[in-house]
Amino acid sequence: MPYKNKYLPLIIGTAIAVGIIIGGKLNFSDAPDKLFSKNSKKDKLNRLIDYIEYDYVDDVNTDSIVDVTVNGILENLDPHSVYIPKEEMQSVAENMKGDFIGIGISFYPYKDTIAVIRAIEGGPSDKAGIKGGDRIVMADGDTLYGNKLNDGELVKKLKGTLNSKVNLKIFRKGEPKLLNFTVKRSNIPIKSVDAAYMLTNKLGYIKVNRFAESTYKEFKKGLDKLLGLGATEIALDLRDNPGGFLGIAEQIADEFLEDDKLILFTKNKRGNIEKSFATDKGDFEKGKLYVLINENSASASEIVAGALQDNDKGTIIGRRSYGKGLVQREMDLGDGSAVRLTVSRYYTPTGRSIQRPYSKGNKDYYDEYFSRMESGELLDPDKIQVADSLKYKTPKGKIVYGGGGIIPDMFVPIDNSMQNETLTFLQRRGFISYFVFETLEKDRKLYDGISRQVFIDTFEIPEKMVYDFQEYLNKRTESQLTFVAYHDEVKQYLKATLADQLYGSGAFEEVINQRDIMIEEVIELSKKG
Of these residues, 157, 207, 313, 324, which one is catalytic? Predict the structure, then answer.
């Protein structure tokens, strides 16, 4: 395998994402002219950069020096104060805003063209009649094929201003000539709620992948849907959720907590405390609740889990969460770049901080994750290290701990069969998605008569597809892979990916959850009442 630790991509993804975390709640009382008034230390940095720019023997990109300087300063603060270069700001902002302006397709730069995986349901391309498998070859007269176009250039040609129109020429298999479509660009959601469906006739399931600006609206829509289907119990899945906006976490926790219950409080360096309480708008204050967390559930995810646990609401299920209890605020640096600076700590209703120590530096901080694995904590709850000095009690007398993540009420060990090194590699490198797309390309009509629910409930991946996938990989990787040890798991991922490309909108989760041991545990708890 190209890497030796199956968790490394998750670590990197979480480390990057948790830097984009909660803020927008606090206000600075000092005016900018006071905060940024001149002093000798700042003058020293400015003079050094000026000297390098004007007098240094070689030409130097001083912008890069400034970037390095800013990063160096932030690395000496805490692991979650981060610098966002101006070239990354747009994608970061779109991700946290929850939408962008575009034509509404999922696509691959496949071979030398843009291949549509599927048009987003209800989006402009879907309304125009664009289908999965279509190739977009021209946009407003510009060619979109050839080996020289990169992903960024392709996206730029398809994005534009709101309500602007783009004329597309599309190749569709079986059609004698190119098809013409005019598509009006609109706001395209970047979904933060992956799925909302019924696990049983009374147990609803909602999967939230981050806390963006649009998340509460998505979540409320999903919750209303489940209540309409008769849900009296909810499983809220926050696994692998790196966090997001503090206010959004508060709104979601409010849906489950009774009026005036404390959700959390924050404290800054001056000792100022701000408290957040539940309001009267919650729609699921009486129902039974299960919250799923794991070692990659961070920040805003931990706010929700901690608020519910400390108020004796629901059952927290899974493994100890990440352990991030710091609040960031984004500040513009004037050149299109920004810094997300830690401005306060948050505390759960019982008064506990769940922030892991970081006094030994960032490397030690992130290596602590590997220590959890090596200690056996992901398999055995008795291996979780807790300190009696950080023991707290909930109103009903339940013991909870601070100092490094939310410890679940019910432990579920990691499932190595569905999260092994090879499967993680294949999924994250896109091999499964590309193979499924190419398989669909051979004959999409095979699936025309299969409804979404029939596919999810009864469709079985042919054995031949698994062997074809193995041959596909062996042609594209140096290792000769075999799936003897996890044949069924590969079939499950192939089916889930096929469902996603055919039906979208939560189909992947519905399939993959059929073999999820944490979901099975929730269903069993629900049956026991």
Answer: 324
* DSSP per-residue letters across 175-224: -SS-EEEEEE-EEEE--SEEEEEESSSSEEEEEE--B-TTHHHHHHHHHH
What are the pLDDT digits (tens) for 275-305? 999 999 999 999 999 999 999 999 999 999 9
Annotation marks residue 324 as catalytic: yes
Residue 325 structure tokens: 């209890």
Q: Does residue 192 carry a catalytic annotation?
A: no
Q: Give the whole-angstrom CA distance, residue 331 versus residue 321.
A: 28
Label residue 24 left, alpha or beta by phi (over 0 means left) and psi (-120 to 50 means alpha).
Answer: left
Catalytic residue, candidates 192, 214, 276, 299 = 299
Per-residue tokens: 35: 């905060």
Query: Does residue 237 carry a catalytic annotation?
Result: no
pLDDT tops 80 at residue 461: yes
Q: What is the pLDDT of residue 148?
A: 66
Query: Annotated catalytic residue: which of 310, 313, 344, 495?
Result: 310
Cα separation, 461 vs 478, in Å, equals: 26
Q: Can you tell me the distance from the alpha carbon of 137 to that of 102, in angstroms, rounded to the nearest whole number?
A: 17
Residue 352: partners with Cβ closer than 8 Å, 6 or more residues away: 306, 310, 390, 392, 400, 401, 402, 403
Query: Is there a contact between 201 and 230 (Cβ–Cβ < 8 Å)?
Result: yes
Residue with tokens 């929700």, as numbered in its chain: 304
Domains of the chain in start order, with CATH, are 99-189 (2.30.42.10), 193-327+342-414 (3.90.226.10), 421-526 (no CATH)
> What is residue 48's predicted lDDT score, i.e. its pLDDT?
84
| 403 in Cβ contact with 392 (< 8 Å) | no
Structural tokens at position 292: 């799923």
Is residue 334 within 8 A of residue 328, CB to CB? The reply is no
Instruction: Name the residue type at position 170.
Output: I
Residues 6+ apart with CB under 8 A from 122: none
Helix 362-375 and helix 8-17, axial crossing angle in degrees, nearest 10: 140
pLDDT, position 14: 43
How many Cα atoms within 13 Å fall on the side-chain side of residue 158?
Answer: 27
pTM equals 0.87
E-assigned strand segments in 99-192: 99-102, 105-110, 113-119, 135-139, 142-143, 165-171, 179-184, 186-189
